[in-house]
Design brief:
mainly alpha; two-stranded antiparallel sheet; 13 helices; 75% helix
C-alpha cells in the first residue's frame, strides 16, 4: 500500500513538473514583453493556440514533430511582428494592438486547422514518442522519464538562449526600451524597431510553447490559449517576487514561478476542486501575487 501511495505521489510531482516546465516556457515569452519591454501584450492568448494549431496540423501531415515545432516558432514570430507593427507603424495603443492580434488570430487558427476547433494527434508521432528508444533497447528508466527529460532540456535551451540574448547589444536595447525609451533614441537607435523585434521574439517563444503543449496533451483545442497571459504574468510575478533576493537569472525565477503556480493549481484539483473552477483559481492566484508583490515591494501598481 505504501509503495502504491509513493508511486502516486511521485507521478503527481512529475506531472506537475512537466506542466510547470511547459508553462515556464510560455512564461519566459511573457517575461520578454512584460518585464523586459514593459509592454502589456494580450496577443499571447492568440499566439499560444496558434503555435499549437501549426504543430498539430503539420504533425498530422506527417511532418517531423521537431520541424513542426519550428513552424510554430515562425508563426509566433510573425504574429508578434504584427502586434509590433500595429503599435509602432500604425500608432495603435499597445494594449489595443494585442487585443486586435489576439482577436484576429482566432480566425487564423481556425484557418490553419481547416475550420476544426480541435485536432487530436493520438495516433501520430510527437516530441515525446518513445518507440525509437524501445527499438534501441535503452533502459526502462530513460523511456519512462523521457517526456520529463525532453522538457527539462528544451526549457534549458530556451532559457540559455534568452539569457545570452539579454547580454547582447540587442538585449541591452530591449531592456533600455522598457526602462527609458528616450535613452534608446539618444543612442541613435529606433525604439519602434526594438519593440517590434522584442514582441516578435516574445510571441515566438509563446507559440513554441503552444506547439510543445500539443505533444504533451496529444491534442489541440482552439480554446487552449484562454487565460494564458494571466497564467504567464502570475508565474512572472510569483517567481520574481519570491526569489528576488537570490542571485539567479530572471528566467530561472520565471520558470520556478511557473512550477509553483502549477503546483498550487494541481494541489487544489487533487483536494477536490472542480476543473470548471480552474480559470477562477488562475485569477485568484494572479490577484494574490499582485497583492503580495505590492506588500513586499511597497509599490502601488505592478502593471
Amino acid at each position: 500500500m505504501e509503495n502504491i501511495l509513493s508511486g502516486a505521489i511521485i507521478g503527481f510531482m512529475v506531472e506537475v513538473l512537466i506542466q510547470g516546465l511547459l508553462y515556464g516556457l510560455m512564461s519566459m515569452g511573457v517575461m520578454m514583453s512584460y518585464k523586459v519591454l514593459d509592454f502589456a501584450d494580450l496577443s499571447v492568448d492568440g499566439t499560444f493556440p496558434l503555435g499549437g494549431a501549426v504543430s498539430a496540423i503539420l504533425i498530422t501531415m506527417g511532418v517531423n514533430p521537431w520541424l513542426a515545432l519550428l513552424g510554430s516558432l515562425i508563426a509566433g514570430l510573425v504574429a508578434g511582428f504584427m502586434t509590433g507593427f500595429f503599435h509602432v507603424k500604425l500608432g495603435i495603443a499597445g494594449l489595443l494592438s494585442g487585443i486586435l492580434v489576439m482577436t484576429g488570430l482566432y480566425s487564423v487558427n481556425l484557418w490553419v486547422t481547416g475550420g476544426l476547433p480541435n485536432v487530436p494527434i493520438y495516433k501520430e508521432a510527437n516530441l515525446f514518442s518513445t518507440e525509437w528508444l524501445v527499438d534501441l533497447n535503452l533502459p526502462g528508466w530513460l523511456i519512462s522519464n523521457y517526456k520529463l527529460i525532453v522538457m527539462i532540456l528544451l526549457v534549458l535551451v530556451v532559457k540559455l538562449v534568452i539569457d545570452w540574448l539579454l547580454r547582447t547589444k540587442v538585449g541591452y536595447l530591449m531592456k533600455v526600451t522598457g526602462d527609458n525609451e528616450s535613452l534608446v533614441t539618444s543612442l541613435g537607435h529606433s525604439v519602434g524597431a526594438v519593440k517590434i523585434l522584442g514582441l516578435s521574439i516574445s510571441n515566438g517563444i509563446v507559440a513554441l510553447s503552444g506547439g510543445v503543449a500539443v505533444s504533451v496533451s496529444r491534442y489541440y483545442d482552439i480554446t487552449s490559449g484562454t487565460g494564458m497571459v494571466v497564467l504567464g504574468l502570475s508565474s512572472v510575478i510569483l517567481g520574481t517576487m519570491l526569489l528576488s533576493k537570490l542571485r539567479i537569472k530572471q528566467t530561472t525565477m520565471v520558470i520556478a514561478g511557473s512550477i509553483m503556480y502549477r503546483f498550487i493549481v494541481a494541489l487544489a484539483l487533487w483536494q477536490g476542486m472542480e476543473p470548471r473552477n480552474m480559470k477562477l483559481m488562475t485569477v485568484i492566484i494572479f490577484v494574490a501575487a499582485i497583492l503580495l508583490n505590492r506588500f513586499v515591494s511597497g509599490k502601488q501598481e505592478v502593471i
